[in-house]
Structure formats: structure tokens, C-alpha cells
Amino acid sequence: MTRAVLVGIVFTIGVEAWREVTYYQRWHDVLSSGTFPVDDVTWQYPPGAALVMLLPKLLPFAGYVPAFVACVVAVDAVVAWALARAVLTTGGPTAAPWLWVLGIPALLTTPFTRYDVIVTGVVVLGLLALRGRPRLAGVLAGLGASVKVWPAVVLLGARWRSWWWALATAVGLCAVLALTSHNAFGFLSAQSNRGLEIESVGGSVLMAAALFGYPAQVEYRYGSFEVLGPLVPQIATGCVVASAVAALWIGVWRLRTRSVGPVVAADAALTAVLLFVVTSRVISPQYVIWLVGLGAVCLVSRQTTQRPVVALIAVMVPLTSLEFPLLFNELLKGSAPAVVAVLVRNAVLLVAAVWSAVLLHRGYRRRAAEPVAVLPPPREEPAEAEQEPSERSAGR
């Protein structure tokens, strides 16, 4: 019912709601000619993304936009079914599927006019597959990474054999696309000069500073609205450095932890994506779709360390809807209510990222030590307890 309402709203609003899909259609036309977009700075995706752009044309619909929305809704339904099935299988809390069922439409039209639901669906299915089909999990992780890179986080808490399947899938798919199409890896240099998007943590701080006299300007560059002004290059560089430090921390944690398995994988994936998002030069509203999906997988297990973080993600959803699409035009003008909405959302995001990292580190460091530190009680204790006091004394 929620999807029917939101899809109806998408088509009622019209092109203003599905403008992003028109980019996908343009790229589809280019890809159909045997080449990836050339000299198009808005194309910023790995070769596997071409499969998503071409997918709608396989459906028997009159137009590209209806077919694309139908693909998103279909994947959305599969994710909801997979989460519900996982909860029924593991006996986990029903909050997991409900977070997805209610969280996605709470982002209003964004999930149905971006391809991030499709990518997130691959990640969710990959993490759930770790519970019994590690090879399939690796294949899904490789497929997702070839589409939008970040789905590789599925493997952070997985065993090494899943990594090999993921690597083979990603390399094989990208190689086939590179051999059959021109400029498959042109995206690598398209974003090198990107600045600070106004919804990013650094960008929102500068937008707030503009309320007190900072000479900020907003300009559409590289497919998003960026803030221009003093200190922007330095802050953008700081974001890149922070992302590198976060990646290094995640790598060190993975090498040091002895905990692997589906619960660890879900928790580690959520932490990694939160750290990536909070340190990124760009925070688009569709990034929250990733967090909702990963949070839902974490909730499948009662042993997750990330329950408080998922609660913060639930808070982040309406705040994101408030700043986009409801107040976005006001944000472009530097309106104080819109800027405050973004600042509050980013503050919640920052707290969630730090808290997630702390819980991941403490939780799995402690759990890895438990098998060594805690010994099971001897089996003869119950029998000994039933002996007479004199017998226990003689035994000692």
C-alpha cells in the first residue's frame, strides 16, 4: 500500500520527481551504442552500472521511466520478502523487515527515482546469503561492487572463500563489459576535481557559516550542488583524508578480529558505510537507503551490536526527507530552517558513525576473547553438589 501511494505521487509530480531517471535514460541510449558515456562528468559509476541502466528496456512497458520504477518496486518487494523470511527462520525481531517496509517510503519519492534500492537489494541479499550460502554471498558482493563499489562491504565479516568468489565475479563482469564497450573505466577520472556538496558534513557547516557572513556560493557541478568559497579545497581534501583513515581503521579491525559470520558481517558493513558517508564530500539523500537496508539486516539477529545505531538511522530518515525534497529549494537559497535541518541530520549521522565504530570494536573484541576467557563448568559439579558435606570434604 505504501509503495502504491508513493509511486502514484511520483507520476503525479512528473519530471521534477523522476529527473534523475532521465539521466539514466540518456546513459541507456549511449550504452546501447556500444560505448560508456565519454566526457560526461555526471557518469561516476563502475562498468556494472550499465546493466542497471539497460535493465528497464527488457520489460514490456511503453516508456523507460515506468519500466525503471517497476524494476525498483520489484527489487524493493524482494528485499522485504527476504528480510521477513530471515526473521521467520532465525526467530529474530520483526523490527528488521518493518524498518525496510516503513523506512523506504518515509524517504518519499527518492527511493523510487534512484537506482540505489536495486544496489542495496543486492547487498541485503548478499549479507543474508552468508547465513548458509557463502559462495552466493561472494557472487552478490562482486556483482554489487561492479555496479557501485560500496557493496564490497558485504565481505568485511565474511570468510576468505567468499572474497575469492566476489573477486572473480567483479573482475569477470568488468572485463566482459570493457571488452564489449568503449571507455568502461572513464569514471575513474570524472570526479577528481569534485568539491563539497551542500548536504555533506563539511558543506553543511559552510552553509551554516553563510548565515553569519561567510561568502558562500552554490553552483551545480559534477551532478550535484556544491558550495564554493574560501577553505572549500582544504575541507574537501580533509574529507578525502578522513575517508582514507576510516578505511585504514576498518582494515586494521578486520585483520585483528577473530570474529567472522553473518552477524559480524552485517555489523561491520553498517559501520563501514556510516564512516564512508560521514566523511564523504557528497551526501546524497539516497545514501540513507543504504543505511536503512544495512540496519534492517543487522536487526535480523538479536546478537547485533548495532541496535542503538539503527535507532539513530530511523531518526535520520525523516530528517533526510525534510531537507530533501521538502526544503531543498530553500537550502539552495541558504534559508536558515533548511540549513538547520541538514545540520541536525548530519549531527545524528556523525554520532551514529562514531557510536557504530565504538560498538563494533568493543563488541567483537570482547566476543573474540570469550572462548578463551570463559570456561564451561565441569560436568561433575551437579553430582558433587548432591554429596554429603563429609564426602565433599574428603574429596577436597
Automatic annotation (TrEMBL):
Query: Transmembrane region positions?
Result: 61-84, 114-130, 137-157, 163-184, 196-215, 235-253, 260-278, 284-302, 309-328, 340-360
Which organism was this protein described from?
Actinokineospora bangkokensis
What's the protein name?
DUF2029 domain-containing protein
Q: Where is this region: Disordered?
A: 375-396
Q: How does it sit in the membrane?
A: Multi-pass membrane protein
Q: Name one GO cellular component term.
A: plasma membrane
Which Pfam families does the UniProt record give?
GT87 (PF09594)
Record flagged with keyword Membrane: yes
- Molecular function terms, GO-annotated: hexosyltransferase activity
What does the UniProt entry say about where the protein is found?
Cell membrane
Per UniProt, which keywords does this protein have?
Cell membrane, Membrane, Transferase, Transmembrane, Transmembrane helix
Among its keywords, does the record have Manganese? no
Q: Which family does it belong to?
A: Belongs to the glycosyltransferase 87 family.
